[in-house]
């Protein structure tokens, strides 16, 4: 049931980006700020050694405690956050590092500052840069990913999802709201958003089981996917990204 | 025969509340008393910005998912607008200059981005590239269409990729942001053009005002998300009156003529 899944992926015990970065990398160095305005603590952008090679990690911070959640703005990135991501992406491209994004975030920031600071353009810039990267990028959904923010961080060669994760156009609550007056329902009946449903569409490439071995499974999955992608040329990587999404859409055309 | 005027002859201005006759609204739909702009339909927009218009082959498809109430809404929108979807695209001529023109219609499910609108956008972008023509998009959209779920979201990156590709090919691109330009459209291709201008009075942003108020409980600054305030913040090249729009488009097309 969607409701139980949401409870799981929004709980304080949910596997965090920080936990993945700590478990999988050594020598991790964190970028600070967007060089323009601010540092957004809702996203960690940094690079570390992952199986004998440097890789860029972009991890959304949702926070476990109430204080953390407030500090991290519940994982909703600000425009400064997307600009920090773009700065990291440029470095990864410059030095030939693969990019791994770790996603568990609500829809985009809904506040005045985000709008005044150019949220739309910051999002578009990240979508665009992720799509055109000349290095491999892999998105891993640790929890939920919704709206333009998740799309920006998941515009990648490979999409991996923990089995209880969801990826949706908007939060289930927001989708429910357009069913005005209707009883709350399991929205997965109408719109594919679970890992299994999206794998069936060909959007998700690999589902990672959740058990005591989850971290080991994440490590192996990322390693395997990267092993293949690193043999591709820049043009192949760019083309595969565009075709990946058009192929999914073509199934409904 | 009834002595009452036909329905649609008089329409109250939403701003000044006066009753305005159809002929006074005119083809540009501007209130003669207070200057308020009604939202234009795609047909009215084509009349404003093209002296000739040859539509592209029209892409259609069945709705991808059986979302409750969606079929009825689509049928209603089609009946009300006479269009098959929220985007009309084709080759246009204005002041002897040919260009690819895409027009979104807010009267069709608030111009929301879905499978067909996305496919037609990629089509008009690709046509601009192959025919080596400038691209002009008149944008009016509430964002991604919820009823098509993840497929609507995936229009953002696929349309933007096509748009980036067109810019890389050297074609001139011009986006006209009209009321409203929001959500996934605002955060993908709306600002991707060489020139981004807005029609006066348009609301432009990502998250809607109601959502922001409900989520952050902050007071909204005056003229929040208005074309005028975005212009002041440096996010737009120009804010243009509806009456001047065709002239400005003509000017920009002339300046970008290929030698």
UniProtKB/TrEMBL annotation, chain B:
<keyword id="KW-0443">Lipid metabolism</keyword>
<keyword id="KW-0862">Zinc</keyword>
<dbReference type="InterPro" id="IPR000438">
    <property type="entry name" value="Acetyl_CoA_COase_Trfase_b_su"/>
</dbReference>
<keyword id="KW-0808">Transferase</keyword>
<dbReference type="InterPro" id="IPR029045">
    <property type="entry name" value="ClpP/crotonase-like_dom_sf"/>
</dbReference>
<dbReference type="InterPro" id="IPR011762">
    <property type="entry name" value="COA_CT_N"/>
</dbReference>
<keyword id="KW-0863">Zinc-finger</keyword>
<dbReference type="Pfam" id="PF01039">
    <property type="entry name" value="Carboxyl_trans"/>
</dbReference>
<keyword id="KW-0444">Lipid biosynthesis</keyword>
<protein>
    <submittedName>
        <fullName>Acetyl-CoA carboxylase carboxyltransferase subunit beta</fullName>
        <ecNumber>2.1.3.15</ecNumber>
    </submittedName>
</protein>
<dbReference type="InterPro" id="IPR034733">
    <property type="entry name" value="AcCoA_carboxyl_beta"/>
</dbReference>
<dbReference type="GO" id="GO:0016740">
    <property type="term" value="F:transferase activity"/>
</dbReference>
<keyword id="KW-0479">Metal-binding</keyword>
<feature type="domain" description="CoA carboxyltransferase N-terminal">
    <location>
        <begin position="9"/>
        <end position="259"/>
    </location>
</feature>
